[in-house]
Amino acid sequence: MLHGYCPPKRFLPYLSWTDIAALPDKADTVIVLPAGSIEQHGPHLPCAVDAVIAAGVVGHALARLPGDVPAFALAPITYGKSCEHLHFPGTLTIEGPTLQATVTEIGESVYRAGFRKLLIVNGHGGQPQVMEMAARELRLRHGDYVVVPHFTWRVPHAAGRYLSDSERRLAMHAGHAETALMLALAPDTVHMARAAPHLPPDFGCPTLSPDGRPAAAWTARDFGPSGVIGDPTPATAEQGRVILESLADSWAKGITELHQLQWIERSAPTWGRAHWNGDVSPAGRCKRNSKACATAGLRQAGDA
Fold this sequence. Notes:
The protein is an alpha/beta fold. It folds into 2 domains: 8-266, Creatininase (Rossmann fold, 3-Layer(aba) Sandwich); 268-304, no CATH class. Helix content is 33%, strand content 8%. It is built from 8 helices and 6 strands. It has helices spanning 17-22, 49-64, 96-112, 128-141, 165-170, 176-185, 237-260, 290-296, and strands spanning 30-35, 71-73, 117-122, 146-151, 276-277, 287-288. Strand 1, helix 2 (49-64) and strand 2 (71-73) form a beta-alpha-beta unit. Helix 2 (49-64) crosses helix 7 (237-260) and helix 3 (96-112) packs across helix 4. The radius of gyration is 21 Å and the shape is globular.
């Protein structure tokens, strides 16, 4: 079914429009958008790694939430900006502006339904800037919209206890941590007999890269023909389960904190953007912000 790893009761698309319109406290309900990619991850992992990890971690996090924390997942964005993997079959990529427009338009739909908190859980390291640009655009349009773009792995987790020093410093793709997590989430898609290490050389510019990680632009093929940038060989399913538990716990805590957060609301309009308040439910008739309409020379919806 479409909900994947997410508990069905926490999957927003399974609600009817009348269910969504009737939800209480929509302003503090957290809507979670997993975002990943379909791109090569070496011979031992499937191309869907980033999409699986984003959706899997979000689903397990939502399953841990107390019943009184209102939060729902959306269906994941599975295609991403993966041009650094163009040299490999199986990579399905879209351009940055296309992805930005997709995230922005989904965010508009979430706002239009009356929600005011959107958490984007991005599982692909090649597109955080795109997510940040979409989030900023949504905030420019709506001064009461809290949009948080965040990388799946950028919360406290247990992976570090298993990684070698070289893996911790230099691994970037299809290495130990990703492989272990996939062994926990989708073990039938992992082929450990094909796993082989391949770490990049130190960058050799310590002022710009203290840990030796490449500071210059790169493609996966720059480092060799396998597509692996790390050492997946020590990964185990048990490690993956521990990593998954730690990620899910941290994300559940983050979702709870975001639900409780009271953040700045800006009434001042942004030049060139029409501001809308309310929502499209029967009780929340959609209106443009009057100041924004005056600035842009637009007629308020409802004046027609």
